[in-house]
Q: What sequence folds into this?
């Protein structure tokens, strides 16, 4: 039995459930290690690891997993008047076969933030009224929902391996991006260099899907990077700070990284800003360990920036959980949050400062795994040490 299956079975036992129904892509990654292609697959995970995957007929055959029962439903067929009604009927039939009452099966009922499916240009949504029909009669409570979402907080060794791979793939894109930076290049062209490098890794190391969302801001545009990230047609100039915010997904597992680098010679004030942000990140990384509160780590980063005169310009949290999504469910590394880190968690550490009177901003973001004794930086590059415990 896999580590994840044990965690799921324990969840079912705690909540007196015989099974759980999921349809959001990241739930399927969490439960099955499967990134659905269309985003219209539905998984019924039953106690003792018996799982049934209901997949649309248009789902590519080579994406379907081994070791799980697969039942196709007629989404995408022109002769199917209501494929979701057919799906609901198939689920009811499988429950009848097993003599399971629907009230013993749980599910998250409403659409919430989710990761994207493999065909990331669009996610055909399960119509809410169809989901209501499918999960109507299932067990449900706010406590149960929160207990299920808590399963995102801890990653198994295999999931950690997949997240490391996502970070390694991201590093390839970041390296190409940094090498491409020069005066005259547009922000969008710089972002495209990173995205293209990552997409080109499909087929290597058994990677089926690798995609990045790179957003590059340069010069005065970096002042806005604490509020939003986007690439524009602005041409990079000598003396700019250039910031990249990049989400990377590899077969359903995510990294979330930011780098800020100078182009040619920058001013002393810009250099002070970069050094302060790097110092803030180091201070937070050095404290990351089991039993340490989110508030304590956030405060360490803020104190460094405050001493450098940038307190009011650090306008967001120091980090969040990551791995199954770009932003996993779970507590933020933020002021006043006294939830504590535990071994097996993966979080970001991303202090930044955005300074209008300097006409620039900076942020550094890495992904770290909390270990039994400290933390491991998953997003290793030449400027960082692999371990921070």
A:
């Amino acid at each position: 039995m896999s580590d994840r299956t044990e965690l799921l079975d324990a969840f079912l036992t705690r909540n007196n459930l015989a099974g759980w129904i999921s349809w959001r892509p990241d739930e399927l990654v969490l439960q099955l290690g499967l990134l659905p292609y269309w985003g219209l697959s539905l998984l019924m995970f039953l106690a003792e690891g018996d799982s049934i995957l209901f997949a649309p007929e248009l789902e590519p055959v080579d994406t379907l997993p081994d070791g799980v029962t697969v039942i196709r439903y007629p989404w995408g067929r022109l002769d199917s008047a209501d494929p979701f009604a057919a799906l609901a009927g198939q689920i009811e039939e499988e429950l009848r076969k097993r003599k399971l009452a629907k009230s013993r099966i749980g599910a998250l009922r409403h659409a919430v933030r989710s990761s994207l499916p493999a065909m990331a240009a669009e996610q055909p949504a399960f119509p809410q009224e169809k989901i209501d029909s499918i999960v109507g009669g299932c067990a449900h409570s706010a406590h149960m929902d929160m207990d299920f979402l808590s399963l995102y907080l801890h990653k198994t060794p295999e999931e950690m391996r997949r997240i490391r791979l996502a970070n390694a793939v991201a590093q390839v894109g970041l390296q190409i991006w940094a090498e491409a930076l020069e005066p005259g290049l547009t922000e969008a062209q710089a972002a495209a260099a990173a995205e293209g490098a990552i997409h080109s890794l499909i087929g290597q190391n058994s990677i089926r899907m690798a995609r990045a969302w790179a957003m590059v801001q340069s010069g005065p545009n970096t002042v806005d990077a604490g509020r939003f990230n986007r690439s524009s047609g602005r041409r990079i100039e000598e003396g700019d700070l250039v910031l990249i915010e990049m989400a990377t997904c590899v077969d359903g597992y995510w990294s979330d990284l930011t780098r800020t680098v100078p182009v040619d010679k920058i001013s002393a004030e810009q250099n002070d800003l970069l050094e302060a942000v790097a110092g803030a990140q180091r201070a937070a990384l050095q404290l990351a360990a089991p039993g340490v509160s989110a508030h304590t780590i956030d405060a360490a980063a803020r104190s460094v920036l405050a001493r450098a005169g940038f307190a009011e310009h650090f306008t967001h949290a120091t980090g969040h959980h990551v791995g199954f999504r770009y932003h996993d469910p779970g507590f933020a590394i933020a002021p006043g949050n006294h939830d504590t880190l535990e071994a097996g968690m993966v979080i970001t550490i991303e202090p930044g400062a955005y300074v209008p009177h300097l006409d620039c901003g900076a942020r550094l973001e890495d992904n770290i795994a909390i270990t039994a004794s400290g933390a491991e930086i998953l997003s290793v590059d030449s400027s960082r040490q692999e371990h921070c415990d």
User: Anything to note?
Assistant: The chain is about 30% helix and 20% strand. Confidence is low (pLDDT under 50) at residues 382-389. The chain has two domains: 3-152, 157-377. The domain at 3-152 is CATH 3.40.350.10 (Creatine Amidinohydrolase; Chain A, domain 1).
